[in-house]
Amino acid sequence: MSKSESVGRYDGAMERELIRALIDRAQHSVLANIFGLLILIGMAFMVPFREALVVGILLRMTAVCYTGYNTGRIRMAITSGKPVTPEVNRFAWGMAWAGLTWGALLFVIPLQEMTSLSAMLIVSVVVSGVLLVAATASAVPQVMWSYFATFIVMLVAWLFYITPTYGMAPVFAVLGLGAAGISAASSLTRESNGAAKLIFENRQLAEKLTSLNAELEAIAEEKSHLASHDPLTGLANRRSFELFAENITEAGDRSQWSVLLIDLDHFKEVNDAAGHAGGDAVLIAAGSLLKSVANALPDQGFAARIGGEEFVLMVRGLRDSAVRDIAVSVNARLRVVPAPDGYDGTISGSIGTSRWADDEPIDRCLQRADRLLYDAKEQGRNRIVASQNDIPDLPYDPPLAS
């Protein structure tokens, strides 16, 4: 419902539940009314007062059609989230007209036919219709009493019409029946209100449970992410890296993978000069760089932060020369990472690369890469040192001739 549209008496959440109950019942009521009309149409071929009965039937048909039309409008308003109060008010006017048309059916019976079987059948149809409307409209008192008000006016007029001929007996019978009908309608109203309140509360509870479940799932997802990712750089953490290595071991293709161990040069000096905020900015930039490299590789490489300023990049299915090319690219891109305010040097990294042998755990491969990284530091930093043929390279697959 838009803010520009006014909220009326029946536009609250619980009131809309009552309206839903009303229109669900009204749909069945329309079908029952059509059945009652068919009975009356059949009688029109048999009674001597058929012309008057046809007029009464036509009036009832207008009421049934208008009820069906108003029911559709209310359903559309509820479905689209528009205010339903104007539609309910229109429906109440329609039910007032329905009450008049039901009462009009009593007047089609001539006085001399009041004790005939045809008259009793018409009265039975009217009584059934009244009770049906009471059951249908009880969810919304305004609608129900709009109907009863006009029907009672017609009923009182009819009683005045027949009393001179038949005395007070019909009056007492109708009063007893009316009292029973009003009592039943009031009980149905209370029952409808209670049922609507229960439905509304259950729906609210279901919505709260759905919202709570969504929150719990989001929290669990966030915890899972935090447990497997470095909160600063967004890269996988050491635990996630170890799980990734375990999966590779289980898959049995360790020799397809190479490890690049990367350590930022002079990082303590960066922290001392630029503070932890400056150091964090460098770590974030390095993490973003490695993430983009991993995502750009054909077999989706894997990047992780496994120490303070230490990162690992795993690549699959590449020969040693291609692995070195990636290391050169990473090293070159690290050098263009902006130095934080307060630090006058250049950001750079040292890299050790090694292929993962088929018969070794990941720790041994990391130790080898770490020794190569240490060699790079010893040789002056800002360089790459790769393992030298200690583990067989992948076979060379020449490109297919075009």
TrEMBL record:
CDD domains cross-referenced by the UniProt entry: GGDEF
Enzyme superclass (EC): transferase
Q: Name one Pfam family in it.
A: GGDEF
Q: Which residues form a coiled coil?
A: 195-222
Per the UniProt record, which residue ranges are transmembrane? 30-47, 53-70, 91-111, 117-137, 144-162, 168-188
> Which reaction does this enzyme catalyse, per its entry?
2 GTP = 3',3'-c-di-GMP + 2 diphosphate
As one GO molecular function, the record gives: diguanylate cyclase activity
Cellular component (GO) terms are:
plasma membrane
Q: Which residues form the GGDEF domain?
A: 255-389
Keywords attached to this Swiss-Prot or TrEMBL record, sorted alphabetically, are: Coiled coil, Membrane, Transmembrane, Transmembrane helix
Annotated EC: 2.7.7.65
UniProt xrefs under NCBIfam families: GGDEF
Q: What is this protein called?
A: diguanylate cyclase
Recorded source organism is Sphingomicrobium sediminis
